[in-house]
């Protein structure tokens, strides 16, 4: 099928401009002038802008094993509704975790026929499985996640410094690290006060663990990516390491950029995540890290659970699951905050589409250019909406954004040229997949 989309603002890798985008057999065949002759049916988007589909490389789908928390059908439908056309699934909190080829195949079997967007997979590096990593890498995972602190689930234990070094030595791959140092954490007593939970996970825990990951990566000449950075105090370490030749990158998440840790109401456990949402001054530092390129990626860290595990009944922050569900809302949340700070939609596209695609080597994702997959989003940047949990496609409508007014509405999402609707047609992606 061939058709052409016309928009006054098409967000290309070199910036937005009026253009036509011709789609043929699921890929972008041409990008032309806005008044260029068109192949196939012409679809004029009017005042809507055309974005590349976002790429979210940090999503916990949890299926199989904990499908009551989230699943491939609900997570990928939410992704498409939020303008995300590619996700990379984390190796936990599924059962089994993706720490062997057999576990990867079990997860892919569970996902088959359920995916509304394209899906890739991370592998996991845990104590004792360094020997499994080469085969898992050859099977197509995009790299390996490890924790330096308790992950929250017993089947995915953390690595110590020696274990991290052993994993780095086992395979030449991208390693993504949850960087908090357990020695810097404090016991959190049962409490409905967010301040008590926040005090239990100070910035020093991230700074120390980031330093550990960087030192081990430098010694091994390994490629390391710091996950969900919440502590701006770690940015000088990252800048210095990159300047010194360490192959390092870093991401942050919408909740760290948009929510105020000093304003969380008592008992509002929907705000709990690890590492935590911090104060506005810290948030300013994270935006500065995006501005200077120290942080190059914004992803959701979509990590939902059941309302019971979030302790919606008791509001106890110490006992509540630490994860935020925001896969459907990330684009709008980030765009709202970015625009208020003087950033452009082109910046958001770089952080949420091109940057994540490049992180994992998906050369045909996250960009509008000839040869790329026709993953496209018709977006109204000036429209606003009030977040209603009942309108979310996540399995459980628990979100810290409930009742918040956000700017930016996704009108249509295309995956490889086909409009995403009620029939899933996502495919599995492999590392270095040219599709």
TrEMBL record:
<keyword id="KW-0659">Purine metabolism</keyword>
<protein>
    <recommendedName>
        <fullName>allantoinase</fullName>
        <ecNumber>3.5.2.5</ecNumber>
    </recommendedName>
</protein>
<feature type="domain" description="Amidohydrolase-related">
    <location>
        <begin position="49"/>
        <end position="419"/>
    </location>
</feature>
<dbReference type="GO" id="GO:0000256">
    <property type="term" value="P:allantoin catabolic process"/>
</dbReference>
<dbReference type="InterPro" id="IPR050138">
    <property type="entry name" value="DHOase/Allantoinase_Hydrolase"/>
</dbReference>
<comment type="pathway">
    <text>Nitrogen metabolism; (S)-allantoin degradation; allantoate from (S)-allantoin: step 1/1.</text>
</comment>
<dbReference type="GO" id="GO:0004038">
    <property type="term" value="F:allantoinase activity"/>
</dbReference>
<keyword id="KW-0378">Hydrolase</keyword>
<dbReference type="GO" id="GO:0050897">
    <property type="term" value="F:cobalt ion binding"/>
</dbReference>
<comment type="subunit">
    <text>Homotetramer.</text>
</comment>
<comment type="similarity">
    <text>Belongs to the metallo-dependent hydrolases superfamily. Allantoinase family.</text>
</comment>
<dbReference type="InterPro" id="IPR017593">
    <property type="entry name" value="Allantoinase"/>
</dbReference>
<dbReference type="InterPro" id="IPR032466">
    <property type="entry name" value="Metal_Hydrolase"/>
</dbReference>
<dbReference type="GO" id="GO:0008270">
    <property type="term" value="F:zinc ion binding"/>
</dbReference>
<dbReference type="InterPro" id="IPR011059">
    <property type="entry name" value="Metal-dep_hydrolase_composite"/>
</dbReference>
<dbReference type="GO" id="GO:0005737">
    <property type="term" value="C:cytoplasm"/>
</dbReference>
<dbReference type="GO" id="GO:0006145">
    <property type="term" value="P:purine nucleobase catabolic process"/>
</dbReference>
<dbReference type="InterPro" id="IPR006680">
    <property type="entry name" value="Amidohydro-rel"/>
</dbReference>
<dbReference type="Pfam" id="PF01979">
    <property type="entry name" value="Amidohydro_1"/>
</dbReference>
<keyword id="KW-0862">Zinc</keyword>
<keyword id="KW-0479">Metal-binding</keyword>
């Amino acid at each position: 099928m061939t058709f052409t989309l016309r928009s006054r603002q098409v967000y290309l890798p070199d910036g937005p401009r009026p253009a036509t985008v011709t789609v043929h057999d699921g890929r972008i065949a041409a990008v032309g002038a806005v008044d260029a002759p068109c192949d196939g049916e012409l679809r004029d988007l009017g005042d809507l802008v055309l974005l590349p589909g976002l790429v979210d490389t940090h999503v916990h789908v949890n299926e199989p094993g904990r499908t009551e928390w989230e699943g491939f059908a609900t997570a990928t439908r939410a992704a498409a509704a939020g303008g995300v056309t590619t996700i990379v699934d984390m190796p936990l909190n599924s059962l089994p975790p993706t720490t062997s080829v057999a576990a990867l195949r079990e997860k892919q079997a569970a996902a088959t026929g359920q995916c509304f967007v394209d899906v890739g997979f991370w592998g996991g590096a845990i104590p004792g499985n360094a020997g499994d990593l080469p085969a898992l890498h050859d099977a197509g995972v995009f790299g390996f996640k490890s924790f330096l602190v308790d992950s929250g689930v017993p089947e995915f234990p953390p690595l110590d410094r020696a274990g991290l070094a052993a994993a780095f030595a086992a395979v030449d791959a991208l390693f993504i690290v949850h960087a908090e140092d357990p020695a810097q954490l404090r016991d959190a007593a049962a409490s409905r006060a967010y301040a008590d939970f926040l005090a239990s996970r100070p910035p020093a825990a991230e700074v120390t663990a980031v330093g550990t990951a960087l030192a081990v990566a430098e010694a091994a000449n390994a490629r390391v990516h710091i996950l969900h950075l919440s502590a701006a105090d770690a940015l000088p370490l990252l800048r210095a390491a990159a300047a010194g030749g360490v192959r390092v990158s870093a991401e942050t998440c919408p909740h760290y950029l948009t929510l105020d840790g000093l304003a969380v109401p008592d008992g509002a456990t929907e705000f709990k995540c690890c590492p935590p949402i911090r104060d506005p001054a810290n948030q300013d530092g994270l935006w500065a890290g995006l501005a200077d390129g120290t942080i190059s990626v914004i992803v959701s860290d979509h990590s939902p659970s059941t309302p019971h595990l979030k302790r919606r009944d008791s509001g106890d922050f110490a006992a509540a699951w630490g994860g935020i569900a925001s896969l459907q809302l990330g684009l709008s949340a980030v765009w709202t905050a970015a625009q208020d700070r003087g950033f452009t939609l082109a910046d958001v596209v770089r952080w949420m589409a091109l940057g994540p695609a490049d992180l994992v080597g998906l050369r045909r994702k996250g960009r509008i250019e000839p040869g790329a997959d026709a993953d496209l989003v018709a977006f109204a940047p000036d429209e606003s909406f009030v977040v209603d949990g009942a309108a979310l496609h996540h399995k459980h409508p628990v979100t810290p954004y409930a009742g918040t007014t956000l700017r930016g509405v996704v009108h249509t999402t295309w995956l490889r040229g086909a409009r995403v609707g009620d029939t899933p047609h996502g495919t599995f992606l492999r590392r270095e997949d040219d599709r």
